[in-house]
# Entry
Amino acid sequence: MEQGQFCFITDDYYIVYDKEHKLMRNKEMVDGKEHGRPCFYAFPDRKNPLILWCVPISSQIEKYMRIYDHKLEKQRQKGIRRPKCNTIRFGEVMGVKKAFLIQNMFPVTMKYISEIYINRMTKEAVRIPQNTENDIIVHANDVLRLVKSGNTNLVFSDIIGAYNDLIAELEQ
# Structure
């Protein structure tokens, strides 16, 4: 899998690494077919490229724009002159605006990727513009740095525990 592609995660990942059900889970069957959501933007870990960080995307722009704006307003009320929100970012996927939910990111290995998101029209892997990709990676790495320094409330699940478990799994 190449950096910048989108993927879908196997149910096995959720069984092993999401026992508390804090991650965005695979959707149920719709009309007897797998629904194939959510999909995740994936990029390799800086230290171990066998670990990929998955950032879910959402089409619920209005919902996440309200949350984004609320986070910025809370910072303004605290006197922060240049508020920023690292945990939710916005960009286009296949020409449609999406919310990238860094707050819901988690690590995986290729073992837990079921498939790559393919554009039905072009039969090519779905990609995002370079500036969007750079924005997501910069902010995700910033959130990772903050989580590693103890700000675990920035993400919903124990991504450091899952990361360490995946490293142990790779070493076996």
